[in-house]
Amino acid sequence: MKYTYILALFIFISACNRTEQVSEDTETLTDSVATADSLLYPGEKHFRNIRQLTFGGDNAEAYWSFDGNKIVFQSNFTEWGVECDQIFYANVATANLGNEKPPMISTGMGRTTCAYFLPGDSTVVYASTHLGGESCPEEPARDAGRYVWPVYDSYDIFVTDLNGTTVRQLTNEPGYDAEATVSPKGDKIVFTSDRTGDLELFTMNLDGTDVQQVTNELGYDGGAFFSPDGTKLIFRASRPKTEEAISEYKELLSQGLVKPTEMELFICNVDGSDLRQLTNLGKANWAPFFHPSGEKIIFSSNHAGARGFEFNLYMINIDGTGLEQISQDEVFDSFPMFSPDGTRIIFSSNRNNNGTRDTNLFIADWVD
Fold first, then answer.
1. pTM greater than the 0.85 cutoff
2. What is the C-alpha to C-alpha distance for residues 58 and 174, in angstroms, rounded to an integer?
3. Where does the signal sequence lie (predicted)?
4. Are the CB atoms for 233 and 190 separated by under 8 Å?
5. Of 2.170.190.11, 3.40.50.800, 2.120.10.30, 1.10.287.1080, which CATH number belongs to 53-366?
6. What pLDDT, in 10s, does the model give residues 156-201?
7. What are the boundaries of each domain within the chain?
């Protein structure tokens, strides 16, 4: 409620400072922009004309098509007839996801994650556990205040068309293969796998051939994205250093779990060379994506929060300087991705969820 009040007051004060000699068309346009931006929090100067796309459930990891006209995302919205995350796509300009179910392109079995359009925008790569069982895999219990993510060993990476027909299976190694994203050059896929006994980054061709290991340090390496020119990777990683931290990491991984509460961002060339740590903020820094310039990274972090669950979007230069807070949420903003032309951004947020735990998708014009 207080955000609505503050924003309304801000709009009123701004309107008072405008010239009184405005045309009727201008007044109409001003009202339209104010309505569109009523989903913004004060201080979010990089967003304009924000639009909410989904209205229930947990909707996340929404990524643009190469032509910027479609998105693919995962959702567990029960009103769409799913019990855990499945993959959907939508045409951005015409989607009305508050009133109608978008096309589901995963099998509807198992659990899915991390879908991404392939060149041509007629096929999508994603990870699924459906070969390990038709039911949703069991989620880990939260005990003694420990928050963990599951690393299901039944995840493999598949390609589907927009009719939901599986085109091919890209991975068939034992263990976890997931978190696939595609280079803007359209020639490579990066993904996370534990096939070496640790969670490392790998690249492969679009048909699953020529698998190359990128990282090799102990710790979870994941959520990688290519730079706009396809030469670099940005990703999140844990790097346990103490004997206790190393022991905990290995024990959890043996149970198919990782603890995501201490992660920093790392950057390297696609072949793994020139690897360096980009952030040193503490807590959880993740969901990084390159700014269209290739010189900055947008990401989600709770480093400034007091309670651990206040995640906001931040921007940082690729040399580690110039940290800037982008969003101003008191709960959760994450999974930012710029459109291919750099004019729009999509992200997931708890804003406007009427006090529920729903996480919805939002699109905004981007203002540098």
1. yes
2. 29
3. none
4. yes
5. 2.120.10.30
6. 999 999 999 999 999 999 999 999 999 999 999 999 999 999 999 9
7. 1-39, 53-366
